[in-house]
Amino acid sequence: MSRDQSTYRPETLTASRPLLWIAALLSVVMMAPVAWLVGLSIKNNRELMLGTESVFRLPYTLVNYVNILHSSQAFGWFFNSMIVAIGQTIGVLVLSSLAGYAFARLEFPLRRTIFVIVLFGLAVPEQAVIIARHQMFNWFGLHNSHLGLMLPGMSSAFGVFLMTQFFRAIPKEIDEAALLDNASQWRIFWKIMLPLTLPAQATLGIFTFLHAWNDYWWPLISATKKEMYTLTIGIASSQTNFAQSEGLGFLSAQAVFASLPVLIVYIFFQRHIVTAVSGGAVK
């Protein structure tokens, strides 16, 4: 019997069966709120006004999603969220990649000191600098603008740290071979190093997109005009002011509608997350 065959024994599978049942139970518990939200979104609002237990019985309808298609506000908020999330993600990837390469591969004065200062950003909560940030953006007239919503999230200490560690994991022999071929530092970064960090960039991009898409704190402060609301602020304002008139089903459909981009992004890039976590970026 080979080593591989002896590894998978019946008693091993029997011992792990309780863990599988526990994992399945936890998955059901975690998915229950999502299933409840989807169920509310496909129910008639008049039925839900009588009682939310009607979600467990027929009939179901897609009228709430049809109403979203006729709602210019929801699409405007969706458009704002998409611009902010994509712009912030691109900004973080560009700045973090450049900074990470500089800290990991280049020699310049006070490199270690500056890197430590950047890491201090991980320990400073956003709420601690919110007043100063609000005043700065007010002076420059950046409130109620897409740029004003994007800029704070582009300074990612975590992104710089992640990319620095990833660049450090790449063997230096690659740089030396490229230098022997008279390649410039920019060409080494752009043509050689950057493609090797795609798993880390995909992971950082997903985390940044999720954070920007779900961000509530800064858009609540910076976006005071309704046309500049992101989806998180728009849906929250609907729940506060129009829950009775719009209906619980319509609000649930808006929440499902707001979650779709996050789900799509994760489905397309999940394999890069697995590669980055397993450390398989550099062979």
Automatic annotation (TrEMBL):
PROSITE patterns: ABC_TM1. It is found in: Cell inner membrane; Cell membrane. The chain crosses the membrane at residues 20-42, 77-102, 114-134, 146-167, 188-210, 248-269. One of its GO terms (cellular component) is plasma membrane. It is a multi-pass membrane protein. Part of the ABC transporter complex UgpBAEC involved in sn-glycerol-3-phosphate (G3P) import. Probably responsible for the translocation of the substrate across the membrane. This is sn-glycerol-3-phosphate transport system permease protein UgpE. It comes from Paramesorhizobium deserti.
